[in-house]
Amino acid sequence: MNSKSCLICLLLTILFLLLWQLLAQNSDMPTPGEVAVVSWEFLRDPLYDAGPNDKGIAILIGYSLLRLVSGFALASVVAVVLGVVLGRCHTLFVAVNPYIQILRSISPIAWMPLLLYSVKDSELTAFFVIFMASLWPTLANTAFGVGNIRKEYLNVASILQMKPSEKFFKVILPAAGPAIVAGLKISMGSAWVALIPAEALLGSLGLGYFVWNEWNNLSLPSVIFAILTIGVVGVIVDWMFSKLARRLAYTD
Amino acid sequence: MVPLLEVDRVGKKYVVPGTKTPYCVFSNVSLQINEGEFVSVIGHSGCGKSTLLNIIAGIDNADEGVVRLKGREVSQPGLDRMVVFQNFALMPWMTVYQNVRLAVQAAYPHWNRSKIHERVQHYLELVNLKGAENKYPSALSGGMKQRCGLARAFAVRLPMMLLDEPFAQIDALTRGTIQDELIRMWNDTGVTIFMVTHDVDEAILLSDRILLMSAGPFAEIRETIPITIPRPRTRGTIIEHPDYYALRNRIIQFLSEKSQPHAS
């Protein structure tokens, strides 16, 4: 961000807070000040642990991230392997593409009843919701990236008689790397979006549970704090992927 | 004596979308290259000379005829012939050093680190890329990229090398220097080279024999011209040799005749 953008961003923030203050004063919504006070309460002791349903914000974030990372990790491995296969075999890709298109447009939350019924465990259900949310963008991007690797790189690999594993790790993965990471980034975003309602509905300890719990307590300042926390954590996770993407990028 | 490379009545057809009869790029192309020879094919762009090279390399398939290497039929790429590409084909996510190392590692999987390092360094020195080892291809000029391509090709020390218009994308001044480096490495290694080019001077400077390929469709190798000018040759001295202009004129005449549109 250059200094001009910074200035505009700052002005927008001030304008937003002012507007919020004005609207809140004339209704029963919490004011920015009230939210700030509540936030401070939460942030002052982020690691407290007062029983199974009363934990500090850092612990809640930790639970959510752990759930996110485990489902995302398995989905990523599956998606990259499957994506490479589909990217290398155009006929197969065309054959399964209709399924991918249908499955990717189903909100992962929609799977929840079916998952709950079949696995009969809320933690495992949350895991599979994240898995389903993370799978498709990475799969589609990997298949696209691998399918569009320049022929000459693959020619070099076959002239050098590379073993399949060598070809996979030294040519295919790095060549499709930027596309794969772009897919992972989108996957991570949609997994994070799916995680919150899944936690809220399943009552699994985490940020989604937190936001729903505060709503049940009718504590609106806490709800707003929870919303802000979800946004900030999402941005940090996304930023980490941008860093990774920059490391793997290359110019022809 | 069995020639190192034998191309026996090879032909290639393409099916043009929307037409029924396939387009015949070339047919009945035969040539033989002995061990240690430097043979060039010269022809117009589109005559299929790069396709011919790809067929020899095993990365394209012939529709008729066979390619034999040391008497053995080959239809797949293999660690007995290496290609130097017109557009370099360096891995853009790897440094110069890593690109050469990738090839040496693949060709000699049982070698230890230091032996691989030694080999890579040696060939980077030969092509004057010392100091640029850690640069990525995108930061290099065309000449430096092809130096890396040559280092990669020579470092694996395969018996046969296929050069696909290796200097076409390099400026004229740099081209001369790299051609000298190529000749020096060819002399040192005794590798057999098959080169495709459309540069007449380059072909005369480098080759033992030049094969003239007619324009397609149904392109074929029409003539073989032995280059009698003694080695070592340099850009400066070949033009003083009495045979030079005769050779050059003959090739240029061939190329200009074939570039006339067909009477039909």
Explain the layout of strands and helices.
The complex is a heterodimer of chains A (252) and B (264).
Chain A lengths: L2 H23 L6 H13 L12 H32 L1 H15 L7 H8 L2 H26 L3 H9 L4 H39 L4 H10 L3 H29 L4
Helix pairs in contact in A: 2-10, 3-4, 3-6, 3-8, 4-6, 5-6, 6-8, 7-8, 8-9, 8-10, 9-10
Chain B lengths: L4 E10 L8 E11 L4 E5 L6 H9 L6 E6 L2 E2 L7 E4 L11 H12 L5 H14 L15 H14 L4 E5 L7 H18 L2 E6 L2 H7 L2 E5 L7 E6 L8 H4 L5 H16 L5
Explain this structure to me?
The complex is a heterodimer of chains A (252) and B (264). Chain A is built from 10 helices and no strands. Chain A has helices spanning 3-25, 32-44, 57-88, 90-104, 112-119, 122-147, 151-159, 164-202, 207-216, 220-248. In chain A, helix 3 (57-88) packs across helix 8. Helix content of chain B is 36%, strand content 23%. Chain B contains 8 helices and 10 strands. In chain B, the strands form 2 sheets. Chain B has a 6-stranded mixed β-sheet, sandwiched between helices. A 4-stranded antiparallel β-sheet of chain B has the order 2-1-4-5, covered by helices on one side.
The biggest beta sheet of chain B is recorded as: 6 strands, mixed
What is CATH's topology name of chain A? MetI-like fold
Strand content of chain B: 15-25%
Distance between the termini of chain B: 44 Å
List keywords for this structure.
heterodimer; A: 252 residues; mainly alpha; MetI-like fold; 10 helices; 0% strand; globular; B: 264 residues; alpha/beta; Rossmann fold; four-stranded antiparallel β-sheet; 8 helices; 10 strands; 23% strand
Compact description:
The complex is a heterodimer of chains A (252) and B (264). Chain A has 252 residues and is mostly helical.
